[in-house]
Specification:
This protein is an all-alpha fold. The chain has 5 helices and no strands.
């Protein structure tokens, strides 16, 4: 558990917040909003797990995750003219948040597990997109497709 929290704080929280700040001078409102927000999510969730997890009712945790799902849903709408890979990341992520929220509200382990698998799929998609962007730029051509943006 401690290793997961360390990764959440370092990579999920700090690295994403830095990436978001780096998007500001580029004028990328979506990238800045997404990276800074999810960086804050990982910091807040890690701090919650470290200090408050046994003091907060599951219903409140469910609402917290639900609101992140709502935020992610409208961010997903913002991707509908972006490459398909980015659309898929946000699609799976909002579903993941809603599954995790439902798991908190109902206490059903199957919903928690489904949400966990959704998180793994989201991570795999995000790793693919980041690899595609780096590799494609380095080669000056499409090596790994990301799906054309919608018109």
């Amino acid at each position: 558990m401690q290793m997961v929290l360390a990764c959440a704080l370092a990579f999920g929280g700090t690295a994403q917040a830095i990436a978001g700040i780096m998007e500001l001078p580029r004028g990328n409102t979506f990238g800045a909003t997404a990276f800074i927000s999810y960086g804050a999510f990982w910091w807040s969730f890690s701090l919650f797990v470290l200090f408050l997890h046994d003091k907060v009712p599951a219903a409140f945790v469910g609402w917290y995750l639900f609101l992140w799902g709502f935020f992610t849903f409208y961010m997903w709408i913002g991707t509908l003219k972006a490459p398909r890979a980015l659309q898929l990341i946000f699609l799976v992520l909002w579903i993941t948040f809603f599954l995790l929220a439902a798991g908190e509200w109902t206490g059903m382990p199957a919903l928690h597990m489904a949400g966990g698998y959704g998180g793994l799929v989201t991570a795999a998609l995000a790793f693919y997109l980041s690899a595609a962007e780096i590799i494609n730029e380095a080669h000056g051509r499409t090596v790994l497709p990301i799906g054309a943006p919608a018109n």
